[in-house]
Design brief:
Blueprint: E1 6-15, H1 19-31, E2 37-50, E3 53-66
Antiparallel strand pairs: 1-3, 2-3
Amino acid sequence: MADGVYRVTEVIGVSDESWEAAARSAVETAGKTVRDLRIAEVLRQDVAIENGQIKNYRVRLAISFKYESSD
């Protein structure tokens, strides 16, 4: 395995469907601007409630990506 340097940053995905859809949305959106995503770790899940009903699902993810090297 080659050496590497990785950055970890947090993103939040929101969906009115499910936590899985919220996570998928966060990863797909981040992947449009950040190359070489490697890992997404679920840090927290919660729901927003309105009038006693679930309004949306939210997932906070720690995503990591590899810094590009000049090799």
